[in-house]
Amino acid sequence: QVQLVESGGGLVQAGGSLRLSCAASGSIFSINAMGWYRQAPGKQRELVASATSGGSTNYADSVKGRFTISRDNAKNTAYLQMNSLKPEDTAVYYCNLRIYQISRREYDYWGQGTQVTVSS
Asked: Rounded to whole angstroms, how far apart are CA atoms 10 and 90?
């Protein structure tokens, strides 16, 4: 069994920064792919950033140059550094980790979501 705990959201003024964390615990062998999604009120969930186990990254056009996805393998934690935040970045942010478990099976897990609010 694996649990994900997100943290780091909050209220910030436009132009500010936040770093989201997604810590995984449980029967983890390795974290393979990872992604950060967001969902604003009345909108569909969208992919913000993703990274493969090989280190390739991909970003939505709306966040390129401002957001950075990263990981700390020793801590089984994924991060999303968000700089130059804009009011349109306001949303609930979710992490998704593809975890290779000690059982030698791979599953996708979701974090509980963390609210990011950017004021103008």
From this structure: 10
